[in-house]
Write a structure and sequence with these properties.
The chain is an alpha/beta fold and about 375 residues long. It has 14 helices and eight strands. α10 runs antiparallel to α12 (about 315-335).
Length: about 375
């Protein structure tokens, strides 16, 4: 096991009725900016609950944060936060709203071009404190210090992170997810699943507890993912999904183990260039990436096939392939296509994606830094 430091400062308020408790989590004198997306929080009751909890507080609002939040929209929020002298941010929505709010938190006091937070990974000297009321379990952004931001003008989707961007608290009320469209639920299941895989399916690191924690999250997602789609108001299934998505990326299962974020790196390119939902890009890419990288990942693929999918018969090659096939079938069972052609891409962008990655200096990718330009091309060709 590798050496590590684990610290997660986010206070989790989990379960029914927890939105009512947010007032005690926010300083009494704070000037709060409530951030949200397209307005679904007004329809599902979350907005009214927040207003009741913050009654008597100074609150300004900023709505319209998109899925794959854009730099252009977020800078409008930054300007408003500066004008209104906001000193606390409250994100109400899914991972995109939380990610966008993290950018606002870092950008408001930032001295310079805020895009440098993403493009150059310039660390913020300070950030506004923030909290989150989660309405879509998927990214785990509600209790980590990372975010992904899109810039429309350059068709770039880039990540950044800093310890100051951990939310102070996060409310996880499963009932806030009951009205989600099936597409968003399915995307969330895939996103959480792939978050686990990026930290688990690398190479053995003598970290049996982290492995079994990761495997238990994967098995739970396989169990409750279809239930959340079939029974939208099944509280227990929604609760399990919400907790899985949080644990998938709060730092715990990744402590002391090698990590591979290649699927996400390539997925961000597909979203930026083709406009495909983030979760669906991951479903397209992961099975093909595992196939191309199957030799370097053989030991963990065999472990994954046996422990997660129960595949114990046949040669190693048969079991490796079986685990990858079962993963693809699971995504498809959620209604998520794993073939790029089903999303009507405007053209083949493989060479453009390789060129963009090379220009940023991020190749080679992977836990062994062995995913080079040739392998990226191979994966993208298999995705068709």
């Amino acid at each position: 096991m590798q050496s590590f430091t684990f610290h997660n400062p986010t206070r989790i308020l989990f379960g029914r009725g927890q939105i009512a408790k947010i007032s005690r989590e926010i300083p009494a004198a704070a000037r709060v900016m409530l951030t949200f997306g397209g307005g679904s929080i007004r329809q599902n009751g979350v907005y009214d609950q927040i207003q009741a909890a913050l009654k008597g507080r100074e609150v300004v609002e900023f709505g319209g944060i998109e899925p794959n939040p854009t730099f252009e929209t977020l800078m409008k929020a930054v300007d408003k936060a500066r004008q209104e002298r906001v000193d606390f941010l409250l994100a109400a929505g899914g991972g995109s709203v939380v990610d966008g709010t993290k950018f606002i938190a870092a950008a408001v006091p930032f001295d310079g071009d805020p895009w440098d937070l993403c493009l150059r990974h310039t660390p913020p000297a300070s950030a506004l404190p923030l909290g989150a009321v989660l309405t879509l379990p998927a990214t785990g952004s509600e209790s980590n210090g990372y975010a992904v931001i899109t810039r429309k003008s350059t068709l770039e989707k880039l990540s950044f992170g800093h310890p100051s961007l951990f939310p102070c608290f996060a409310v996880l009320d499963p009932e806030a997810t009951f009205s989600l469209p099936p597409r968003q639920v399915a995307n969330g299941v895939v996103d959480a699943f792939v978050h686990v895989m990026e930290q688990y399916l690398t190479y053995p690191a003598e970290a049996p507890l982290q492995d079994r924690l990761a495997e238990s999250i994967l098995q739970t997602l396989i169990e409750v993912g279809p239930r959340t789609l079939a029974e939208p108001q099944d509280y227990e299934a929604r609760a399990s999904l919400m907790w899985c998505a949080n644990l998938a990326l709060n730092g715990l299962i990744g402590a002391g183990v090698p990590q591979d974020w290649s699927t996400h790196a390539l997925g961000h390119e597909l979203t930026a260039l083709h406009g495909i939902d983030h979760g669906r890009t991951l479903a397209i890419l992961l099975p093909n990436l595992l196939w191309v990288q199957r030799e370097g990942k053989r030991a963990k693929l065999l472990q994954f096939a046996e422990r997660v999918w129960g595949l114990r018969e046949g040669s190693e090659g048969v079991r490796v392939e079986g685990g990858i096939v079962r993963t693809r079938e699971f995504f498809e069972s959620l209604g998520v296509s794993t073939h790029l052609e089903d999303y009507n891409p405007d053209r083949d962008r493989a060479e453009e994606i390789v060129a963009r990655l090379e220009r940023r200096g991020v190749l080679p990718l992977g836990e062994r830094k062995d995913l080079d330009a040739a392998k990226v091309r191979e994966i993208l060709l298999l995705c068709r």
